[in-house]
Write a structure and sequence with these properties.
The protein is of the alpha+beta class. The chain contains 15 helices and 20 strands. Strands 1, 12, 13, 14, 15, 16, 17 and 18 form an eight-stranded mixed sheet that branches. Strands 2-11-10-9 form a four-stranded mixed sheet, with no helix packed on it.
């Protein structure tokens, strides 16, 4: 089996899965948390007719380094901790619309002014019965510790690691965290922060035991994992070709009939270096489920279904936005005319047609495919400069801007990208599209975890290709990547006007306010062009007929949520 190569640089922030929440979800000062429209209804999870057995799935990358879910900013890097942990809230992959539901919280309330969030926790939930935690109960003090860690509070994190905690601003400005009793956690904010519930339901907001984290000299998890989840790490948890898990015999959840979860005895993630090798393994029935990938084309699905018409197919619009990012340290990019010229020259429809083979959509920073309640309509987007179908006017304007900026003969620029065939094709298309501007792209494809991520966070690039995994809240794009000082503002873009618009967006307490300021922010982004937004993808996941309660969600890594209720027939 080949060691996997990452296809595109994935960073960011995610959310999804299944639990029991309040009878009705409380109103929130955020507007809708609905993710993108799905291509099919999601069947509700069914009760298992058989127990035991092993589920073999695949994923797109090996472990993050370090393998700490609070630090790993890639969806695929975080997947391997997900069967082991739980979250305060999460999204239900079995319901249409993927609603936010309670997980470790059985209910939650939001104050009318949007400043206080009260979570009532499940009682009797215990961490895995292994040292140093030894099966102790999960309490509100664990909620407090984990939120302090995620926001890089100096009392629980070392200063040298603070830059790697890239979700520090995802929770707004936390004023205080109260724990009035073992099963109540109250988070007080300094000001309303519309994306707060989305941040709490993010898969990276995993609840970890303090005792385990602090066994590591620098309080960073480098091996193993302990949580409250349905599975525990198996013997091969660190293996770069396979990650195995064994059932948690004391898991705290039951199914709708009162039966003990999980149904499976074991699960395993396998790593494949390319999609064709993975599909060959699926055809030969070595694996129960493929990864969710845009590399699985319609023609491939049709071919496999000829061999087995009972094959299950899940197609899901993703919250991935592929983009190019400018580094403002590179002199030509300090001129907005140059950035706008490149924005105008890029033909996004060609990326959808040639790279995705039609399995995706053109994207802006506030795309209607992901944020339908706040975004401008797609028709509006396709009328904007840079997005128009007829590129003649865009190219003429781009050449004029390059000349005005003092670069009529173009320039040479390095492009940092992660390894993979799709990346090579994407780069080749960019090189071709920028020839009219006489811009020469010098690509450098590197290992994602080893080079792309640390070099990006340190600003060691000129131009960058990135596949960013956003969440279902618009702030995960316009708030996390573009304001001055934002943790994922790798290009060090600085625009006080945009900063002010984003502040107004996140402080909005009505859906109408959020929509207004999000759209104003998008217009400003198109004027200043700190990034070039290309497209969102549609992923396809294949499951064998004997696998039940399989599924996927809009954020990469969603397949890991199903392990709690998945079951397999004997075959």
């Amino acid at each position: 089996m080949k060691k996997i190569l990452l296809v595109l640089a994935s960073a960011g922030a995610l959310a999804l899965a299944v639990a029991c929440g309040p009878t009705t979800q409380p109103s929130q000062p955020t507007g809708s948390n609905e993710p993108p429209k799905v291509t099919e209804d999601r069947p509700a999870a069914e009760l298992a007719k058989e127990r035991g057995g092993k589920l073999v799935m695949t994923e797109t990358s090996a472990f993050g380094n370090p393998n700490d879910p609070h630090l790993v900013v890639t969806a695929t890097g975080r997947v391997y901790s997900m069967p082991v942990v739980n979250w305060i809230l999460k999204r239900d992959v079995y319901q249409k619309g993927y609603p936010i539901v309670g997980d470790l919280a059985k209910s939650w309330e939001v104050s009318k002014d949007g400043l206080k969030y009260t979570f009532k926790l499940q009682e009797g939930v215990k961490f895995h019965n292994v040292a140093p935690v030894n099966g102790r109960e999960f309490t509100s003090e664990d909620v407090k510790y984990n939120l302090m860690r995620l926001t890089a509070d100096p009392s629980v994190t070392l200063e040298k690691w603070k830059p790697r905690f890239q979700r520090t601003l995802d929770f707004g400005k936390i004023k205080s965290i109260e724990t009035p009793d073992k099963y109540t956690a109250v988070i007080n904010l300094e000001q309303p922060y519309a994306p707060f519930v989305d941040a709490i339901s993010h898969p990276g907001t995993a609840m970890l035991p303090k005792e385990f984290v602090e066994t590591f000299p620098e309080k960073i998890i480098t091996e193993g994992m302990i949580g409250t989840g349905p599975f525990m790490p198996g013997a091969d948890y660190k293996n770069q070709q396979i990650a195995t898990y064994k059932k948690n015999p004391s898991y705290w959840k039951k199914d709708s009939a009162g039966g003990q979860l999980p149904y499976l005895d074991e699960i395993a993630f396998l790593y494949f270096g390319d999609i064709q090798t993975e599909l060959a393994a699926f055809r030969s029935r070595q694996i129960d489920s493929t990864r969710a990938s845009s590399d699985i084309k319609n023609s491939t699905v049709e071919s496999i279904k000829k061999d087995d018409p009972n094959l299950r197919v899940f197609r899901t619009p993703t919250t991935n936005i592929t983009n190019y990012r400018f580094n403002m340290k590179f002199k030509p990019f300090q001129d907005v005319k140059v950035r706008r010229a490149i924005h105008l020259a890029v033909d996004r429809q060609q990326y959808v047609d040639l790279i995705l083979e039609g399995a995706g959509s053109i994207s802006g920073p506030v795309t209607s495919e992901i944020y339908p309640d706040v975004a401008n309509a797609m028709d509006w987007l396709l009328q904007q400069p840079g997005y128009r179908k007829d590129k003649k006017e865009d190219l003429e304007e781009a050449k004029r801007l390059m000349k005005e900026a003092g670069y009529p003969d173009g320039f040479e620029v390095g492009l940092l990208a992660s390894a993979g065939a799709v990346t090579r094709d994407t780069i080749a298309l960019l090189q071709d599209q920028l020839k009219p501007l006489k811009i020469t792209i010098k690509p450098e494809q590197v290992d994602y975890a080893g080079q792309w991520l640390p070099r990006s966070t340190q600003g060691e690039f000129e131009f960058s290709l990135m596949n960013h995994t956003v969440t279902t809240d618009v702030d995960s794009v316009i708030g996390a990547h573009l304001p001055t000082g934002a943790p994922r503002n790798y290009g060090k873009f600085n625009d006080p006007v945009l900063d002010d618009l984003v502040k107004k967006e996140i402080a909005s307490v009505t859906p109408e306010e959020r929509k207004k300021w999000a759209q104003e922010a998008e217009k400003r982004i198109f004027e200043q062009v700190p990034m070039i937004f290309l497209y969102t993808r549609v992923n396809t996941l294949l499951a064998q007929p004997w696998l039940h309660n399989a599924g996927d969600g809009p954020v990469p890594g969603s397949t890991a949520y199903v392990v709690e209720q998945a079951w397999v027939e004997k075959h």
